[in-house]
Amino acid sequence: MKRFDLNLLFSGVKGNSPISSRSTDALSHTACSILTVAVWFAALLVFTAVSAGAQCQGPGAPATTETKCLKAIPIPGNPLESFDISWVNPDRAEYYLADRANSGVDVIDTRHLVFRKTIGGFVGIKLNTAGTAVDNNHSGPDGVVSRGKCLYAGDGDSTLKVIDLDQGKIVAARNTGGTTRLDEMALTADGQKLLAANNAEDPPFVTLFTVSGDEDCDSIDGGFKITVDLSIIPSGSGLSIEQPAWDSGTKRFYTSIPVIVENPPGCNHGQLMGPITCNGGLLVTDPNAPTSIEGAYDPVKNTGVIKLNACGPNGATLGVHDNLLLGCTPANLPGSTTTLVINATNHNYANIGGVTGSDEVWFNSGDGRYYTGSSAALKSAGSLLGRGSVLGVIDGTSVLIETIPQSSGSHSVAADSERNLIFVPQVYTSSSTAVPLGDQNFTAGPGSSTVGQLICGTANGCIAVYASPIKGEGKK
Q: Of 11, 87, 194, 269, which one has the greatest count of Cβ atoms within 10 A?
């Protein structure tokens, strides 16, 4: 197990080591030797319990929820110190995770619930210049999406990399012209157009690619760059563009924008000291008539930026009746406490109370439910857990069903609509000073087991598999 330090077990023992080697008293020396054996034996027991414990235990596997923890799938290689977005292709019965710790995309068999392989070739974890934390803006892989045998993944060097899943390797790469990562992305239903976001550029932009569908994975053009008018996303304020979603009903891409200017008028988007007070927006893009600069929303063309209410979104997913659920988070809009559903056709919206702080969000057509990877969720009153991180479960009518505690870094979620299984990566467990920092959602104070550790049965992280109460009726 990586970075497991037995010396941490001896924090209550005086001196520089578990026993003193300077004792001249034979009896004391013998007693200390016995103590050494006892302490190291206890350490071995603790190590064994952490490394090979039972899965689906603790707060992340409650008996009272409809959604049940079914299994934890370990990932070979390095512990899951850092990961990003995930995706499921139910027709291939495969789940894909952007695994930065192992510099590749992990492939999980969703039929048999086993790890298959990691497809490498990505930059992996990059630390900030001080070496104190992960540099998300330059690490990779990041966003992932697939159709058929073709999987598209963004990397930390601003490139789009295309994997042929049948060959198990990268077969094409396109540079988007930035200096930071290519992040989240979405495909049209026919697999012919791909929209991908460079979220960390200043100003940020998206690139529209023409791709091959699910045939020749290496058939891809150079892309068409789209920015947002500087009056809406100005440079110099660290503003971003996040997850897109495709709606076949309106034939548009809808991309979350965490913060936009003058929403409401006079708000602080970062030009002033103090907390952000501006809401986010939703960029509407017509892939058949793209423009290089998008402005305010045009109802005739159905393109441009829609102003949102009480939401600074990261994630976006399409549900039924052209409804989009957006992963609102107080990390973008401090003080916000809800998640937003907005209709792509008429822009009517509903705020869902009780869950917030989401990054990736997912609509599972198999059970008609939304799932949120809410690592920045607010901790409920009276909770003894170290963090409020949860898996949110919302029904198709925008009503919160339940929340289930997760590791503090579990911001990613995807579901297999054929089998109604939900996949939630759990970050590895670490001390509070580790780099990269691992799960800090302790169950009984600092140093106790974490939520992710009890789900995984190990401190190395895992892919937690949850089962919907609605039985999958598709392929087995």
A: 194
Boundaries of domain holding 390: 77-420
The verdict on residue 1 lying in a domain is no
Write the secondary structure of the chain as one string of H (helix), E (strand) and C (coil): CCCCCHHHHHCCCCCCCCCCCCCCCHHHHHHHHHHHHHHHHHHHHHHHHHHCCCCCCHHHCCCCCCCEEEEEECCCCCCCCCEEEEEEECCCCEEEEEECCCCEEEEEECCCCEEEEEEECCCECCECCCCCCECCCCCECCCEEEECCEEEEECCCCEEEEEECCCCEEEEEEECCCCCCCCCEEECCCCCEEEEEECCCCCCEEEEEECCCCCCCCCCCCCEEEEECCCCCCCCCCCCCCCEEEECCCCEEEEEECCCCCCCCCCCCCCCCCCCCCCCEEEEECCCCCCCEECECECCCCEEEEECCCCCEEEEEECHHHEEEEEECCCCCCCCCEEEEEECCCCCEEEEECCCCCCCEEEECCCCEEEEEECCCCCCCCCCCCCCCEEEEEECCCCEEEEEECCCCCCCCEEECCCCEEEEEECCECCCCCCCCCECCECCCCCCCEHHHHHHCCCCCEEEEEECCCCCCCCC
The average confidence (pLDDT) of the chain is 90
In a domain, 110, yes or no: yes
Flag whether 176 is in a domain: yes
Q: Residue 49: pLDDT band by 50, 70, 90 thresholds? A: very low
Model pLDDT, residue 259: 98
Q: Is residue 226 part of a domain?
A: yes
**CATH number for position 370:** 2.130.10.10
Q: Considering the entire predicted model, what is its pTM? A: 0.89
How many domains is the chain built from? 1
